[in-house]
Every structure is written in C-alpha cells, then in structure tokens.
Write a structure and sequence with these properties.
The protein is mainly alpha-helical. The chain has helices at residues 3-25, 49-73, 87-90, 96-129, 139-161, and strands at 32-37, 43-48. Strand 1 and strand 2 (43-48) form a beta hairpin. It starts with a helix and ends in a 5-residue tail after the last helix.
C-alpha cells in the first residue's frame, strides 16, 4: 500500500469516527446548543442542534472535498501554477511524477490533520453541550497546538524533501 492509499484510508476512518460520534451524541443534545465559546470556555452563542449538525457536516464535507480535489488535480495542474522551492529542477520530466505524487500526499495529509482537528473540536463541543451549563476546558488550546505542530512537521518535511538539489 502506498502513502496515498494510506492517507485515503485515514480520511475514511476519520469520517467513520465523526459519523459514529455524531450518531452517538446527537440524540442526547438539548434543542438549543452552545455553538461558540469564549477563551474562558464559556458559551457565548447558541443555535439549534439541527443547525449545529448541518454546519459541522458541511465543514467536514468541504474539507474532504478539498482534500480529494487537491490530490487529484495536482497531477493535472500546469507546472507554472505549482509554487515550490526549486520548481524547475523538481518538475523536470524525470522527477515530475514523484514531485506531483508527494505534493498530492501533502495536500491529503494537511486535510486529514484539519479534519481530525475539526472532529475533535466538534466532539468537545458536543460533550460540553451535554452538561447543564455548557463549558469547554483547555482542550481546544491543546488541539490548536497539535494542529499547528503537525502542520509545521508536514511543511518541514515537504521542504526537506524538496531542498536544494545536489
């Protein structure tokens, strides 16, 4: 199995996890749910649970659509639309297929990280809304730090892979 297949499987697993979480927790939610929280974790905006569900599903579908579109459009993009270090070297005919495959994998990995972040944040919001007084803890800050760290690692790996040619 190559990286692309592994990342597509990861996206599928994330979608199944999100669906299971929503199916499990959604029925127990009150009709009015907290949809936004301030930095102290206190609810500051409210909406219907159906509206909350619709926004979460739409956001997840948008991320999945961007991941798949990015992955499958990269091989078809003209080389001058790809912005990367040492483009002329890495998009030379003998390296172009490798380069485009790696860029597509980066797009999938970044979208998978963002989808995992969104799923985890949705889970925390659902859990908070099951309490009598909805409140988030410090977990969202850890999630943001994790997403930033993973993003930095993925981009660093990309730049390491496509560093100055020897």
């Amino acid at each position: 199995m190559n990286r692309t297949h592994g990342l597509l499987i990861l996206l599928g697993v994330l979608v199944l996890a999100a669906a299971g979480d929503l199916l499990w927790l959604y029925p127990a939610l009150p009709e009015q749910v907290a949809t936004k929280f301030n930095s102290d974790g206190v609810a500051k905006a409210w909406g219907t649970k159906a509206g909350f569900l619709a926004v979460q599903i739409l956001a997840m579908l948008l991320l999945i659509g961007l991941a798949l579109a990015g992955r499958f459009l990269v091989p078809r993009l003209p080389g001058n639309l790809i912005n990367m270090p040492h483009r002329s070297y890495w998009l030379a005919p003998e390296r172009e297929q490798f380069t485009r495959r790696r860029i597509g994998e980066l797009v999938l990995a970044l979208c998978a990280a963002q989808l995992a972040f969104l799923i985890a944040l949705t889970h925390l919001t659902l859990r908070a809304n099951l309490q009598p007084s909805p409140r988030l803890g410090n977990e969202p800050f850890w999630l943001v730090g994790g997403l930033l760290g993973i993003t930095a690692l993925l981009i660093g790996r990309f730049y390491w892979t496509f560093r100055r040619p020897r």
